Fold this protein.
Amino acid sequence: MKALSATKGNTEMTNYCHFFRGVSFKEKKLFSEAKTEFNKISKTFKFQKSVYNVLGQIALEQYEFHKAINYFNEFEDISDTNYFDIKKSFINHNLGVCYLQLRDFKNAEPYLLKSMKLQESEKDTVSIIGAYGDIATLYYEQYKDNLAISFFEKAYLLSKKVKRYDLKQTATKNMAVVEENRKNFEKALIYRKETEKWNDSLTDQNKIWAVADIEKKFAIKQKQKEIHLLEVENRIKNTQRNGLLIVAALLFIMFGIGFYFYQQKIKTNKIILAQKENLDELNATKDKLFSIVSHDLRSSVNALKISNTKLLNHLETKNYEQLDVLLHKNSAIANSSYNLLDNLLNWAQQQTNQLFFQKEPLHLYSIIQQIEYNYKPLVFDKNIALKNSVNKNIFVTMDLDSLKIILRNMMDNALKFSKENGTISIYTQNSDANFVQLVIEDTGIGMSTAVIEELLQETMQLSKKNNKEIIGTGLGMQLCKSMLVKNGGKLDIKSKEGIGTKIILFLPKDVTNG
């Protein structure tokens, strides 16, 4: 903007300014502003082809495929494979994708094939994987399964040579769909598990970075507290020393000043004692949490270790029935450990005020649908009927991330304690002017009155393990309770042992949407 103001009348400089502003807006996904800047560039601009390239990319992202084709066709007469850092393979690929989206397979095929050959000559492995995937989709849409499958397989094999987890995940997922359509469910299951592995790798990578950052900030905060305490102690010592000097000089003032500083010392010691008790309580909770979590993780890892040993033995004897049982057991252990780590991360972020929090009107049924979709594979594995009867006209005022964390924890518990062929029902009831009552009901093992009372206590203490039943760490329930309170809601539990459990969430109602 400064350059535009300072270079009025200089067409070349003005073109450059609008070009760089347009590219910046495009990178920030502000497509309308980007197009406005590009349209201000004169046709004599040296890099006009680059302008068409970026406008084509914007049109492609906005699903305006005919416009995108018109922009990319500006490069049809270019013989160079790399024109102003615009690769011909990239242009051909985009044209092929546009025609593919328009279901114009006749025009899509030659562009995608030309793009693939150029990318193979450029030895751009990542681009080649994408090209194989698009060509496979092209043939798959035309029911040319044999041609499509060969390219899906090529993309899968090539994805093993790169470190991009997202490409590995997409390639294995495509192979799973192929094998499912072939009715080869054994291979499809292998590919599905590999897909989950790459998905977990992506998630774990992000979470490891997040936990490391939180630990660093927590360590800095602890050091700052120690420095603050030392400063308080030094001030007390200086005050005492000055008091003694005054007493030595002025006997009459000694009593008054001594009494004053004595009172100050008592007040300061009370503050320090209160801070110490608070820190001791927090440290006790932290130590207990790490002790329980470490025990649970060690138990899970040990269970996986033993299970894998049995898995190898059954694999040698080709006992496929036991193999299937052990694989499902391993999957359940992995899911339980993952949920524990996810709750631990959310708890740590909440304790250090790192969670982003913003209340907004939310359509409850749509959020439930998202959660329901994510849990379909787990529900299918246990042959559990999942019923969503939530009122489609209800809106709540909550933080979106908080609501999703609460619903995921409740679904995890319902699945965990439900037997096979059970039922999980999600519905609303008795909503009033202030709250929406959302019920998650299961036909699982239920809970005793003592367990319910412990879970509903207004405390940050974690649950314990009884002799006959395992409650777990209670971290997920404490996390949900604190998030509900922060959002202005509350929680109730109704349960009978051997019959099932009802978790009733009182969610703040959005009055603006009725």
